[in-house]
Amino acid sequence: MRTHLTLGRLLGVPIGLNWGVVAVCVLLFWSLANVSLPNVAPAHPTSAYWFAGVVGVIAFMLSLVGHELGHSYVAQRNDVHVVEITLWLFGGVAKLEGEADDPGAEFRIAAAGPLASGVIAVIAGGAAFWLNVSDGNRVLFGLLAWLAAINVVLAVSNLLPAFPLDGGRMLRSFLWRRSHRKAPATRLASMIGQILAVALVVAGLALGFRSSWWTGAWTAALGLFLFTAARAEWSAAQAQPELLSESVATIARQLPEPLHPTASVADLERELTQNPGAPFVPRVDERGEITSVLPREAIRRVPPAHRADVPVRSLDLPLVGLPRVDPNESVADVLARMGQGGQWWAVVVEGGSLTSVVCSEDVETLLEQASV
Ligand SMILES: [Zn+2]
């Protein structure tokens, strides 16, 4: 069974609605129409409270969409694709394809949601203030004040430094920037997330027994949900040292088609544009054997105007002189030989012929997953 239905698209992002949010909407409607509004604006017909209750629930859902669109907008500006936004029990979730690849982008994406909620709170609060001083409609005042308050709650609760909440993501990006390593930062942030989640459950139970069982139950449920999410992130970020004993062939990159001796630097440029991950293009000699490679950075030595006329031969790096690895070597062995931290690549040679290439970025990524 599908867990949610799709409502439509905003900024090119599909917006979905989880069935659980319907329950929240009914509860919000009930508390708004039967408790909050009659308290703030007494002596109005029930139909006015009910109408305002429906408007309030719709405004609440739009607030959730606004929060998530804040994330999505900044994500898209940082080249992170947004697959879908789903509104559900505890708010909204913007499903991103992949993650930001630098801590600054992650921080901005995470902060944008609470910021959007804050902006909605200020607008609603400002309008409520204006209605109050100008003796405007009391029901509308109550509705706007409630909307401002719920957006403040949304912004503040999401700013809890408990990964994977927005505040936890901001905390992770801070730790990540300081250590330059994402996996340990994720482990620490999601550990703090689990501790805060347990604290929320305890606080919820205490609150439930001592004063309001209703607020207590919500707080405890939020804590449980947060614990599950933080625990999942924590497990996913665990060190996997066994990755380092895998053969280097598993992270080797495919090579582009070799170029012929008559090819020009412009041909090389085209080939590299089509293969953005390749550090070089192999070149065959007159007998059809790969004897040299044409590195990406060498293109810069030829001015663009001459690239169609200059033969690629002038950029040759002979295969014999290049660092090479055997496909059966382990990643750990290659790392020990090539060193950590620097930019490098090594050709993979199998049975005397060039088959693929190992790049330092891929080794670093694996090291990141393996790291302890
Ligand atoms: Zn958020």
Describe what this molecule looks like in 3D.
This protein is an alpha+beta fold. The protein has 3 domains: 4-159, no CATH class; 182-238; 243-370, CBS-domain. It contains 10 helices and 10 strands. It has helices at residues 20-40, 46-77, 103-133, 138-158, 166-179, 182-210, 213-236, 265-274, 331-338, 360-370, and strands at residues 4-10, 13-18, 81-88, 91-97, 280-284, 290-295, 317-318, 324-325, 345-350, 353-359. The chain has a 4-stranded mixed sheet with strand order 1-2-3-4. Strand 9 and strand 10 form a beta hairpin. Helix 1 (20-40) packs across helix 2 (46-77) and helix 6 packs antiparallel against helix 7 (213-236). The protein is elongated, with a radius of gyration of 29 Å. The mean pLDDT is 86. Zinc ion (ZN) binds next to helix 2. The site of zinc ion (ZN) has 5 residues, from helix 2.
